[in-house]
Amino acid sequence: MAAKLEPISLADIPAGGAFLLQPLGATTIHAPESFTEEQRAYYRTARQFLEREVMPHVDRLEKKDYPLLVELLRKAGELGLLMIEIPEAHGGLDLDRTTSMLVSEAMTTYGAWSVTVGGHTGIGTLPIVFFGSEAQKAKYLPQLATAEKIACYCLTEAGSGSDALGAKTKALLSPDGKQYVLNGVKQFITNAGFADVFIVFAKIDGEKFTGFIVERTMPGLTVGKEEHKLGIRGSSTCQVLLEDCRVPVENVLGEIGKGHKIAFNILNMGRLKLGVGAAGGCKHAIDEAAAYARDRRQFGKPILEFGLVREKLARMAAVTYALESMAYRTTGLIDAKLAAAEGSGGDSHERVIGALEEYAIESSILKVYGSEALTFVVDEAVQIHGGYGYVEEYPIERAYRDQRINRIFEGTNEINRMLVPGMLLKRALKGQLPLMEAVAALDGASSAPAAAGSLAAQAEAAEACKRMALFAVKHAVETFGTAIEERQEVLGAIADVVMQAFAIESAVARTRLYGEGDPVREALCRLLAYEARTTALARARHALYCTLPVEAAGAAVERLEGWGRFAPPDPVADRELIVQAIASQGGYPFPIR
Ligand SMILES: Cc1cc2nc3c(=O)[nH]c(=O)nc-3n(C[C@H](O)[C@H](O)[C@H](O)COP(=O)(O)OP(=O)(O)OC[C@H]3O[C@@H](n4cnc5c(N)ncnc54)[C@H](O)[C@@H]3O)c2cc1C
Fold this sequence. Notes:
Blueprint: H1 37-54, H2 58-62, H3 66-78, H4 97-106, H5 111-124, H6 126-131, H7 134-145, E1 151-154, E2 170-173, E3 179-190, E4 197-204, E5 208-215, E6 221-226, E7 237-248, E8 252-253, H8 259-295, E9 297-298, E10 301-302, H9 307-341, H10 348-358, H11 360-384, H12 395-403, H13 413-429, H14 435-441, H15 456-480, H16 488-514, H17 519-547, H18 550-564, H19 571-585
Parallel strand pairs: 1-4, 2-4
Antiparallel strand pairs: 2-3, 3-7, 4-5, 5-8, 6-7, 9-10
The structure holds flavin-adenine dinucleotide (FAD).
Flavin-adenine dinucleotide (FAD) is lined by residues 119, 152-156, 161-162, 188-190, 229, 232, 237, 405, 408-409, 412, 414-415, 488.
C-alpha cells in the first residue's frame, strides 16, 4: 500500500473542478487508506461514543427527550468531539478537515444525532469561527466547544428556502445606535428547541443581508412549536420568531451587507459533510442488510444465497466505495491546500474559506451523489429486510425515513445540480479553469484513447464520461450562449455526467494508488464503472436531445455512443467477489479502523 500523502507545493494541487480536464492519475489523491493514526483514533472515539452513549437511548431520543440529548451533547463535548474545528486559542482543537469529516462520518448511524451535532458544530458554530470578531470568538467559542451553549443557524424563511437571499427578516438600527431591532420568522431551524446561540440572517434596512449572533435570552426571540417530521424525529426543528428582538450592535457577524458570504461558505462545508456522512450511512445500511441476509432463511436457505440479494449488496457496496473515494479525495485536497498555504501569511480562517470555495464544485457533487447513493442503498437494505424492513423494531425502518431529508437541506439537489455546471462555466469565464480549451480539443480527440495500467477499461470509462460531459457542454454553450442558465434540464443532465465521471475516476484512482491487485477493490471499480458509464451515456444523450433539433441530436449522439461503448466486465463474477468480502467482513468490506 502507498504511504500517506506527502505535502506538495501549492502549485501542484489541482484546482477545483480540474478533475474533469486532467487525465486520471495526474495527481496523487487522499483516501481512507492514507488516514493517519491520529485521524483514525478520532474516528474510533466518535464511533465508540455513539455506540456506547447514544445508541442505547435511541427510543427516548426519538420521543424528543431534549434534556437527555443536551446531556449527551455535553458528554461528546467533554471528549473533544465537538471542538475539532474551533481554534486552540478559543478552547478548541483546530484539527484538519479530514479529522472533522471522520468524526462526522462516525456519528451517522443515528440520523437525528448526526443532524443535531451538525447543526451545532457546523452551521451553528462555524460562522463564528470563520467570520466572528476576536471578541465574539472569545465570548462564544469556548462554551460552544464543550456544548455548554448550543448553536443553531437561522437562514430559511417560509417565503425563502432555496432563494435564501430573498429573506424578509428586517433589522433596523435603534435611535441610540446601540442595537439592531430584528423582525421576522425563520423556518425549520435545527436545534431551535434547546439552542442558546442563534446565527440569524436579516436585511438591515430591508436591503443589506447581514449575519447576527442572537442569544436565546435576548428580548423578542421566541421559539415556535416542534415540527412533526417524517424522519430525524429525535432532532429539534422549529420556527424562530423575532418580534422587535433587540440585538447589540457588537453582535453583527462579519461585514454589514456581506451575509451571503457567511451563508454560502457555510453551505460549502455543510455539503461536504453531508456527502461524507452519507458514506457512513451507506456503510451502516450495508452492515444491517448483510447481517439480516445471513440470518434470514427462506426456501430452506439464507436469503444471502439468492442471486438478486447478492446483486443488491454488491451494487450497494460499489456506490459506497465510490462515494467514500470522492469524499476523502475532496477533504484531502482541502487539507493539502491548507497545509501548503500555511505560513503564507494572512488570516487562517480566510484560507479555510478560500479552500472550501475552491472545491465548491466537488462539495455540490458530494451533496447530490451522496444523498442519492444513500437513498438507493437504504432503500435496497429495506428491500432485503422484506416486511421486517417496514416495521419499527428494525433500525433500517428509521434509517429509511431519516435519510430522506438529505436531498432537501443544504441546498436541494436541484439547486446543487444547477451549481455544478454553473460553477464550472463561471470558473472557465474567470480564466480559473481551461474548460473551453478542453471542449475545443474534443474535435481532435479519437473516440477511444487507450488507457494503460490496471483497471485500464475503467480508467477509460472515466475519461469517456469526461468527454461526454465536455461534449454536452460544447453543444449547450454553442446553442444557448449565456441563456444556458435558463436550460435547467440540460444543466441537470450535464451535472449527472460530471458526477459519474468524478465517481469512477475517484474509485479507480484510489484503487490504483492504494489497492492495486486487490480483487475486491478491482471488482468494485468494474461494477461501478459498468453502471456509471451507462448512466452517464443516458444523461449525456438526454442533454443533447434537449439542446439540438432531433436530426442534429441524432448525429451528435452517435459520437457520444462511441464513447459509451465498452467491453462489459463479468458482472456475476464481480458480484461474487464483492459479496464474499461482505460476508466474511460481516458488512462493508473496508471499514475504517
Ligand atoms: C428537518 C429540516 C431541518 C432544516 N434545518 C435548517 C436549519 O437548521 N437552518 C435553516 O436555515 N434551514 C433549515 N432547513 C430548511 C431547508 O434548508 C430548506 O427546506 C431547503 O433549503 C428548501 O427550501 P424550501 O423548503 O423552502 O423549498 P423550496 O425552495 O420552496 O423548493 C421546493 C422545490 O422547488 C425546487 N426549486 C426551488 N427553486 C428552484 C430553482 N431555482 N430551480 C429548480 N428547482 C427549484 C426545489 O429544489 C424543491 O424541489 C431545514 C429543513 C428541514 C426540513
